[in-house]
Amino acid sequence: MTSRKPRNAQRSKVRRVAVLADIHGNLPALEAVLEDIDRQSPDEVLVGGDLVGRGPQGSAVVGEIRRRDWQTIRGNHEEYLLSFRKREIPPEWLYLEEWSAARWMAAELSSEDVDYLESLPFSAGSNSVPTLLLTHGSPVSTNDGLGPWTRDAKLDDLLDSINESVLVCGHTHRPMIRQLKGGLVVNVGSVGLPFNRDRRAQYAILSWDGSGWSAELQQVEYDLEKTLTAYRDSGFLEAGGVTAELLRLELLHAAPYLVPFLKWAEAVGTPAESSSLGDFLDFYEPDEPLRDFFLRLKGMFRGAEG
Ligand SMILES: [Fe+2]
Ligand SMILES: [Fe+2]
What we know:
- This protein is an alpha/beta fold and 306 residues long.
- Helix content is 42%, strand content 16%.
- The chain has helices spanning 7-11, 27-40, 58-68, 76-85, 100-108, 111-119, 152-160, 224-233, 236-239, 241-253, 258-268, 277-283, 290-305, and strands at residues 15-20, 44-47, 71-72, 123-125, 132-135, 166-169, 176-180, 183-187, 201-208, 213-220.
- The protein has a 5-stranded mixed beta sheet with strand order 3-2-1-9-10.
- The structure holds fe (ii) ion (2 copies).
- Residues 50, 75-77, 136, 171 line the site of one fe (ii) ion.
- One fe (ii) ion (FE2) binds next to helix 4.
């Protein structure tokens, strides 16, 4: 015997999946998002990597995520800090100032944290809905970032390369929802260090209604001053040198500073150290699109060759 299901049974098929990523050792931002997730009560929560790195409370963040037993994948910053712990790094990273923050953050992790981070897979699916794939960067690499600038053709190629119809990612700290021919691509943004000029902690909730997906970006206010206090009180700001200061500026402006500084120092031929920071800040406009900034740098390289 067969029976037609009533309409409200169809509605009960709705599954909501919260995805957060790029927490970057920012415990107050994570706590605010956890509270928001509790309130919204999704069916499932996934964590998209970069729990650690670029912030002082990596161990505490790992502890919060671990005890919830959510599916969690690794990001490039897990890979960096694990390389430091295993000493699988170029020898100069052990003394150059630009790596002092990474040395501090790697040392801050407990051996249990390290074991947990080493166990994290490259990608994960959803337990409740089989058509979703979570990767940190893209299905190609933890460092292959997808953002609002990524062309539709590339996103379609990536969707073609996977079995799922929804690709969810983080890494670029730039949230986006893109509907394409082959499915949906969602970048959930960053909990702890957004680069979209919005200082609030950000994540996403995806909904499956039995036939299709939709996504909604979430923004949560948190006490940034608490994070800045952790920067100072933990000793990170002092020990982390120019890198910790650049991360502090990223937090304050919700814009990238660290990578532009490193690229600028390379172009100018100056050491990536605190002594160069003032000149960089004179040169850098955080509101300028990064593409334009890199074009200005390219012009400087050409000038040097000429
Ligand atoms: Fe990140
Ligand atoms: Fe990343």
